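FORM 12-B: Structure-to-Sequence Request
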């Protein structure tokens, strides 16, 4: 995306946003905010890891005003690297407890906008054609019967996939988790750049099983895909999607207006309007009818502080690349 300087962006009145959610939600949010605010918005969709890399690269001359969506641990990494602007939105008091905890953890530099549990989904038609047993647990996915039938994200670019990596470490312990991932790798046909791509591929019938957030699988199922969605029996992790203002933004007042809108019931309703099924963070927001009930899913006590640390992220990714080689 070709961008002008931050000074030019301020002069033109254009608010520049990088979006880490599904493309349909990016577009719906863009239209809704422009209609509400009368401001001009320039939004581009990228994977969470790509957004973090861009913000790091541009820290001396920021080209972006707001980062909206994507897994919260990467927002926390940016906060710890002093890449984000502190801002306390007026609606912070309306947020659910998990969102308020996330805001405090970020040092007031990032606000939670939605939550969603990690899982996988399988194409029931492909499963029946192959005559295979249905997987119900993480460890089922390592069975040789699923060789070449699974897609997962690449944690170097996908926030979803990094959440999966961190989840497995917390579930099994680091060494056992990497042993598991080496077994799983034998069944992986492709590591995708975007975290929602695996369940989209499963929904289309391009692959039997996709590992992604459950709400992304629900969206595909609601659109008619023959998917069965699984909350793994061992337990699973979850994400808190976030919104953050980039430090050095040339459009700070407009950026604050965007954050306020993103935290409002009206702004959060754009998710359901775009066919998305995350759990919104504002207690006054309506829950999408098809949203997974995360209160009944067995969850790990996800350690956002540890896995939101740049050093821990870098260490785990280095080990992942060395042992898993996610190139196929």
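FORM 12-B RESPONSE
SEQUENCE OUT:
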């Amino acid at each position: 995306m070709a961008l002008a300087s931050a000074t030019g962006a301020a002069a033109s009145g254009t608010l520049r946003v990088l979006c880490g959610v599904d493309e349909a939600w990016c577009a719906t949010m863009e239209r809704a905010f422009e209609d509400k605010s009368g401001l001009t918005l320039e939004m581009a969709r990228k994977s969470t890891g790509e957004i973090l890399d861009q913000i790091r690269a541009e820290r001396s001359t920021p080209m972006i005003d707001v980062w909206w969506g994507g897994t919260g641990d990467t927002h926390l990494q940016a906060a710890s690297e002093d890449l984000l602007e502190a801002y306390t939105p007026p609606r912070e008091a309306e947020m659910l407890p998990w969102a308020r905890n996330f805001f405090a953890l970020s040092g007031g530099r990032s606000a939670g906008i939605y939550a969603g549990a990690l899982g996988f989904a399988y194409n029931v038609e492909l499963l029946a054609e192959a005559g295979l047993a249905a997987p119900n647990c993480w460890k089922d996915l390592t069975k040789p019967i699923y060789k070449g039938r699974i897609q997962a994200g690449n944690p170097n670019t996908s926030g979803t996939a990094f959440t999966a990596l961190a989840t497995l470490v917390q579930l099994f312990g680091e060494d056992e988790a990497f042993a598991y991932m080496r077994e799983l790798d034998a069944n992986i046909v492709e590591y995708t750049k975007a975290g929602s791509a695996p369940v989209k591929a499963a929904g289309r019938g391009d692959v039997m099983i996709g590992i992604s957030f459950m709400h992304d699988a629900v969206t595909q199922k609601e659109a008619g895909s023959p998917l069965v969605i699984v909350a793994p029996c061992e337990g699973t992790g979850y994400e808190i999607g976030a919104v953050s203002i980039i430090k050095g933004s040339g459009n700070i007042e407009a950026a604050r207006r965007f954050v306020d809108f993103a935290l409002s019931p009206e702004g959060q309703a754009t998710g359901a309007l775009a066919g998305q099924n995350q759990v919104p963070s504002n207690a006054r927001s309506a829950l999408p009818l098809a949203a997974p009930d995360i209160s009944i899913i067995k969850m790990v006590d996800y350690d956002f502080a540890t896995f939101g640390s740049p050093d821990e992220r870098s260490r785990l990714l280095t080990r992942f690349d060395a042992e898993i080689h996610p190139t196929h």
